[in-house]
Amino acid sequence: MATPQNAGTTITTGFEPLDDTQLGRVGGGYSEQLFSAMQQAVGMGLTINSTTTGTHSANSRHYKGRAFDAIGTPGQLQGFYNWAAANTQSHELIYKNQFLKDGRRHSPIGGHNGHVHFSV
């Protein structure tokens, strides 16, 4: 049987290891809260169009698998925003000129007229 050329070699990836508490929260890549919100959005007729891909701010939770963007009709988007505002504990919830961060209203930020941003 052949032995791989790099057997016994440690590969450095630049990632930090997870401790037991963090590892216990890993479930298929998305938190239960994020995945439940995604399912709700899809159930309301929205399409999840951005998770870890796309162009986002440098420190975006998208790149950490902790955010998604959903697209649909204005009525669907507003309906999901209203549902999420009332039924979740999102870190960020943004649609048009509505911005909740940790449950508190903040000044609107641009770039969210055609989608709802949800992060945990």
Describe this protein's structure.
- The chain is an alpha+beta fold and 120 residues long.
- The protein has a single domain, classed as Muramoyl-pentapeptide Carboxypeptidase, domain 2 (2-Layer Sandwich), CATH 3.30.1380.
- 26% of the residues lie in helices and 19% in strands.
- The protein has three helices and six strands, in the order ααββαββββ.
- A six-stranded antiparallel beta sheet has the order 1-2-6-3-4-5, covered by helices on one side.
- Strand 3 and strand 4 form a beta hairpin.
- The protein is globular.
Helix-strand layout with pairing:
Blueprint: H1 20-24, H2 32-43, E1 47-50, E2 67-71, H3 74-87, E3 92-95, E4 98-101, E5 104-105, E6 116-119
Antiparallel strand pairs: 1-2, 2-6, 3-4, 3-6, 4-5
Which key terms come to mind for this protein?
about 120 residues; Muramoyl-pentapeptide Carboxypeptidase, domain 2; six-stranded antiparallel sheet
